[in-house]
Design a protein that fits this description.
Length: 222
């Protein structure tokens, strides 16, 4: 019996056995009207507002939102279909299990942008291993991202963003983009906001943002 709940769980354990099953994600030729456009992948797309705004503004880009909470994917897809956006798709998956194989099917240099925004913080020390940005995921992104591609991260939790920047800066594949000597970006560079970002801004709370650029170090990554 399938039971549907009206509320969406704020957190799901990505390491539970249920989420370890790899999914065969649809090919880009099925997902988008024009599969040759440059691609922006948003990891943890939540309610989808960020990518819906971008896809509406930039019809010659493709946008893919990946989310582990299936009800949010269904909701985002309904909004996308209502707006008839053919350059946008939302998919349900655990990126640490299913993303690498899907990225391997992209054309060379097609992956231009990846964003990871306000991911679950998993504060308890024993739960830190559940955080989305791991070395293996970063290596997958680096392996298939074009030179000079962008990796954008942001969070309102300092300990989390610090952990994310440590993962990225301990790799050899990305260089941090400095803006007038500041450590954190003042604004979202894509001029679109996630639902969480809008909420935090209304509360006048700090947001920590960083942009990384894929360098020219070889993409033959283990």
């Amino acid at each position: 019996i399938n039971i549907r709940f009206h509320s969406v769980r704020q957190h799901v354990n990505p390491l539970s056995q249920f989420f370890q099953l790899p999914l065969s994600l649809p090919s880009k030729t099925i997902l988008f009207r024009d599969s040759c456009y440059p691609l922006h992948v948003d990891i943890g797309s939540a309610k989808g507002e960020f990518l819906i705004e971008l896809a509406s503004k930039y019809p010659k880009w493709n946008f893919l939102g990946l989310e582990i909470r299936e009800p949010l994917v269904s909701s985002s897809e309904r909004k996308r279909k209502n707006l008839e956006l053919q350059n946008l798709k939302f998919l349900y998956c655990n990126v640490n299990v299913s993303l690498d194989e899907w990225l391997s099917d992209l054309n060379s240099d097609q992956l231009k942008r990846v964003s990871i925004q306000f991911p679950d913080p998993w504060f308890k020390r024993k739960h830190i291993k559940r955080r989305v940005l791991k070395k293996s995921l970063l290596n997958s992104i680096a392996r298939y991202m074009s030179k000079d591609g962008e990796l954008f991260i942001q969070s309102d939790i300092f300990t989390l963003i610090e952990s994310m920047t440590n993962v990225i800066e301990n790799s050899a594949y990305f260089d941090r983009k400095a803006i007038k000597g500041l450590k954190w970006l003042d604004e979202n560079p894509y001029e679109a906001s996630t639902d969480r970002e809008s909420y935090v801004l209304k509360k006048n709370l700090p947001i920590y943002r960083a942009m990384y650029i894929r360098n020219s170090i070889s993409s033959s990554i283990k």
